[in-house]
Amino acid sequence: RHSYWANKGIPSTPTIPVIGHAHQLFFSKYPWEAFDRDYKLYSRMGLYGRYEMFSPALVVTDPGLLKQILVKDFDNFTDRRQFGSQPGSIMGAMLSNMNGEKWKTLRSIMSPTFSPGKMKRMFGLVCTNADSLVTSCLNDAQNNLLLDMKDKCGRFTMDTIASCAFGIEPKSITHEKPVFAQKADNFFSMSPYKLARFIVMSMFPKLFNALGLKADTADIDFFRDVVEKTIRSRQQNNRQRGDFLDLMLNARETTTNDDDENLSTKSANHVLTNHTVLAQCIMFLIVGYDTTASTLAFASHLLAKNVKEQQQLRDEIQELVKEEGELTYQGVMEAKLLDACINETLRMYSPAATGERKCTRPYKVPGTEVTLMPGDLVLFPILSFHRDPKYWTDPDTFKPKRFLPDNKANITPFTFMPFGMGPRNCIAMRFALMEAKVALAKLLLSAELQVVPGYEDIILESNSFLLRPKDGQKIRITPIKQE
Ligand code: HEM
To answer: Which residues of 443-479 are buried (b: 16+ CB within 10 A; e: fewer)?
Structure first.
């Protein structure tokens, strides 16, 4: 069963019977380590093969081919693997887990939520939450405490997504025990049991169901209760905030019964069930939390370590405030060095280390004799591209200037893709960038960020599929006296 790639003339490292290469997820420090090792081995070939148990996966290491697959020939690769698609599960009804026409319908309903116009309207709310984040950081600094930036920023991102998307205010930043952020944290933290469970769920769904395991964990049940209450209250009070929840509720047909299967593949009316709306809300609370919080924690650390770049960025933001009297949406979104610092952080520490698509129609891979068949996976090693010295000089050094407008033309297309690429990229990229930029700008206006002895390096959580700082990301800050 592990001769699929060899028969097509595609190289592949030796496999273990039955398991293929899946053991690498268990026995590597980081699940993406094996991808990086093989990327280095095969990067010149443009592609290589893997086996997730018996499922063949083509790993693309050529940026040109990747562009072809993710953009030009997207219709052959609209899907991803489905995780936890048990009947009635919340996990299975999330946009990120949907495929085919169902995905297309939902994506087109949800996309307008993240238009530039909507972002501009959310700017004030993001600023309010960022102010609370800064106040909380300054309070800790006054008490001479080290700041755990992952924890602080996680509370900030949870409050921001909850208030922008549904008008819920968890007040995680001011709460002693931030239950919302902790539940979302639990969702992403990986114990050996959770890793094993995840592998069985994704690679042996029938076995997973036969064992009576539930795709939805207790953390999801917590969010389900919160969101259900919010939806009920929104419907009873008939109030409109123009937010994500309203958009979903308005797009829904009132006659729909509550069976998820009714999200018909043929429906022209974009039918949404209560269950589907609920699943998207929970997905946003969970995925909206971790990636942006880690990015902010990484950025704070990198700037604390690179004092010159930190000051240059502060100068840019102070200049903006001087010109416009305050931070404005346009000012923040157009600030060049701010954009460059966030991009450089995402290049070095992209929270998503790999991306994937599933082939939906037979596809002849350009420039080869290989034809991919429906069900074959295509993987792209995001982090390996980001750290490849072929595309980046000194890839392990923080050099934000490579992303300044004058230098951007030197970047090879499809070697920088922290939000994925093509029609199935991160739906909330604009929102995440705005959130990260506002928080970082406000923090730098109020404080100097410093590295703490003993915490000079970024240590990543092992066993996690996302890049996350291990045990938070500790820095110290000194308040800047306001003139
Ligand atoms: C720095 C922050 C973030 C990063 C680096 C990030 C990265 C990604 C990546 C790499 C993907 C897969 C794209 C692909 O396959 O091409 C993705 C998908 C997705 N992200 Fe994000 N993300 C971030 C923040 C967010 C936030 C804040 C939300 C929600 C509020 C969000 C919601 C989603 C959703 C729903 C998908 C699935 C889209 C689909 O399948 O159509 N992300 N993200």
So the answer is: bbbbbbbebeeebeebebbebbbbbbbeebbbbbbee
